[in-house]
Design a protein that fits this description.
- The chain contains 21 helices and no strands.
- By secondary structure, it is mostly helical.
Length: about 325
């Protein structure tokens, strides 16, 4: 019988269940065919609640989590199913810490970087949320979380910001990378609550150490276009407290028509750009007419390569700042 088993190939085993197949693989009777075994593992997960011996078989073999379950997020994306049995049974394994110290959670988050349908992305978000990931589990994936802030799906951004809030107090939190990526969602609509969470994180860190990049205020000012009174007030507080350097009135000027409530009151104390221009003109009234000509803009070096032009157009669409458009 062993000689016959040694001659088996994967095709001849297609009707066998996952436990039998994995046992054959463990004993070197069949090769490791990833997609085939993943498909059979999914079949087993569908049946797991009905046949408890399948759960027991899997739990006794943590190597299955490492070699197969870590690939499930990507496999399920390509073979997406709305059948909840598979997800429910994966959660059973997760609650028993079967996926601890594996890349399963990290890969679930990474899948959200793919161009998924909104309904599929939302399902993954709910699935990850049901995992109840701990701070310790999320921290190694913080760069993925930051990258997801630029997602075009508001549901993903809102979901990710809650996870970022969970890890923001940790010593290993990469604040600067967060701040850089947070700016990418300033122009994203319908995420005011998430943007407010992000601003609270900024404020907490700025209280410890003042910001070192004064140009960040130009990006923050874009948030004045969001018609949320609390959000605008928070932005105004940050700008007047931590970015109140020379030129702030000019940064805020393009957004004056958007200002509401306390934000408007806070910024009224700043000198208007018009008055400072008039004062400057008065001081320089004795100069020649030629010195009063408009200050030329610094041109972007040309000719632009197609790649640089594409990125420049993307910056204009995303940032909406006067400097970028100029």
């Amino acid at each position: 019988h062993l000689e016959q088993l040694a001659q088996l190939d994967v095709k001849s085993c297609k009707n066998l269940g996952f436990p039998v197949l994995w046992s054959l693989y463990e004993n070197d009777f069949i090769p490791f065919e990833e997609n085939f075994l993943l498909e059979k593992l999914c079949d087993a997960l569908f049946l797991m609640s009905k046949y408890k011996e399948i759960e027991s078989f899997i739990l006794k073999r943590p190597v299955i989590a490492e070699k197969l379950c870590t690939k499930l997020p990507f496999f399920l994306t390509d073979n997406f199913s709305t059948n909840t049995f598979l997800y429910d049974n994966l959660l059973i394994l997760a609650k028993k810490e079967y996926f601890k110290d594996t890349q399963v959670l990290a890969n679930l988050l990474e899948v959200l970087l793919s161009p998924l349908k909104t309904s599929t992305a939302n399902s993954y978000c709910r699935f990850i949320e049901d995992f109840n990931p701990t701070t310790e589990e999320l921290l190694p994936s913080q760069q993925t979380l930051f990258a997801l802030l630029s997602s075009d799906k508001t549901s993903v951004v809102n979901f990710v910001m809650k996870l970022i809030k969970q890890i923001a107090d940790e010593k290993a939190f990469d604040f600067q990378t967060f701040a850089d990526n947070f700016a990418l969602c300033f122009a994203t609509p319908k995420i005011a609550k998430s943007q407010l969470i992000g601003l609270n994180i900024l404020e907490k860190y700025y209280k410890k150490q003042a910001p070192t990049n004064p140009d960040y205020r130009e990006q923050l000012a874009v948030l004045f276009t969001v018609p949320d009174v609390k959000l605008q007030e928070k932005v105004a507080n940050l700008l007047t407290t931590y970015f109140n350097h020379e030129g702030l009135p000019e940064v805020i000027a393009p957004y004056c028509d958007y200002l509401k409530g306390k934000a408007q009151d806070l910024l009224q104390s700043l000198p208007s750009p018009t008055s400072s221009e008039n004062s400057e003109n008065s001081e320089n009234s004795h100069t020649s007419h030629s010195s009063q000509t408009a200050r030329p803009l610094t041109p972007v070096p040309c000719p632009l390569t197609p790649e640089k032009l594409l990125f420049l157009l993307g910056d204009c669409l995303r940032e909406r700042t006067a400097a970028t458009i100029d």
